[in-house]
Write a structure and sequence with these properties.
By secondary structure, the protein is of the alpha/beta class. The chain has two domains: about 130 residues, translation initiation factor eif-2b, domain 1 (Four Helix Bundle (Hemerythrin (Met), subunit A), Up-down Bundle), CATH 1.20.120; about 190 residues, Translation initiation factor eif-2b, domain 2 (Rossmann fold, 3-Layer(aba) Sandwich), CATH 3.40.50.10470. Helix 4 packs across helix 5 and helix 5 crosses helix 6.
């Protein structure tokens, strides 16, 4: 088994994260020394994936708190509120971002008599606990989910929901890894996942590192393979899950769910409990991010569309709960009708 991919870590009072924009060509790391650098890293997709974004937000706020050592509590509280607001504006769809901010803010509110120096230490510990908890949750998720896969199964996945999208091990890829570690001969078709190519650049790279057979396909080949009976299961991650089981994930996920149902293939979602937004009754209420059109008109920094052509870059879509066979979390496997 290969060494665990180090997505993000707290090192010597700094946040260090692998630059996912550079993969698979080279492994480079970004070092953040203040919370605004972490916000920039989230916005620019240096780090991406709902659980990883939550961890980055927590560590970014801990960095910001550390830079307020020596201040008075009133000054700390004012600046802390600003940091939380700015962090919350980094990306709109992944609920783990807001979950992490609320958890960190809870530490501050529960420590009303603590000074900024003590708060900085408490917040650093909380951020590191969030990281450790995510990895543990992913492993539990994998243990539950791998029972849904049989020896010899071929799995289709979309985007990247592996170690790079989390604190480590992965959600959708964590299920596949757990099956592989249990001795099952599973293999994967990985959608390339336009326009940011997370499947081509990240998922294929991760699975190779894990020694799991992977074949990269264009996004529009998935329907053909499902129809031809080449795929036994679809497993994806999630950026936000509504209380009724509607799932927001990378654009193109909804299409796969329809194709899977049409062809009698189970469609599984793997995500930590922190991805479930119980304040939203249905998926249509989930905010959907639109990113720069340049990500569509360009590939790896090179223009692939005519100058002046308009482009729409919707980053996520919502899969209705009726198309979701099961939702795999660290607490167990849920099946419809969903009341999460």
């Amino acid at each position: 088994m290969t060494a665990e991919i180090k997505t993000i870590a707290w090192e010597d009072g700094r946040v260090v994260m692998i630059d996912q924009r550079k993969l698979p060509r080279r492994e480079a790391y970004v070092v953040c020394r203040d919370y605004r650098q972490v916000i920039a890293a989230i916005k620019k997709m240096v780090i991406r994936g709902a659980p990883a974004i939550g961890i980055a937000a927590a560590m970014g706020l801990a960095l910001g708190a550390g830079n307020l050592r020596g201040k008075g509590r009133k000054d700390f509280d004012q600046k802390w509120a600003i940091m939380c607001r700015e962090m919350a504006a980094a990306r709109p769809t992944a609920v783990n971002l807001f979950w992490a901010i609320e958890r960190m803010d809870g530490v501050v509110k529960q420590s009303s008599s603590a000074g900024p120096d003590d708060l900085a230490g408490l917040l650093q510990k909380e951020a590191e606990d969030i990281l450790a908890g995510d990895v543990a949750a992913n492993r539990r998720m994998g243990a539950f989910g791998q029972k849904l896969l049989a020896d010899g199964d071929v799995v289709l996945t979309h985007c990247n929901a592996g170690a790079l999208a989390t604190g480590g091990y992965g959600t959708a890829l964590g299920v596949i890894r757990a099956a592989h570690e249990a001795g099952k001969k599973v293999s994967v078709f990985a959608d390339e996942t336009r326009p940011f190519l997370q499947g081509a650049r990240l998922t294929a790279w991760e699975l190779q590192k894990c020694g799991i057979p992977v074949t990269l396909i264009s996004d529009n080949a998935a329907g053909h393979l499902l129809k031809m009976g080449k795929i036994n299961a679809v497993i994806v991650g999630a950026d936000r899950i509504a209380a009724n089981g509607d799932v927001a994930n990378k654009i193109g996920t909804y299409s796969l769910s329809v194709l899977a149902r049409e062809n009698g293939v189970p469609f599984y979602v793997a995500a930590p409990d922190s991805t479930i937004d119980r304040t939203l009754s249905e998926g249509y209420k989930i905010p959907i991010e639109e990113r720069s059109p340049d990500e569509v008109t360009h590939c790896s920094g090179r223009r692939i569309a005519p100058e002046g052509v308009s482009a729409l870059n919707v980053a996520f879509d919502v899969t209705p709960n009726a198309y979701v066979t099961a939702i795999i979390t660290e607490k167990g496997i849920y099946r419809g009708p969903y009341e999460l």
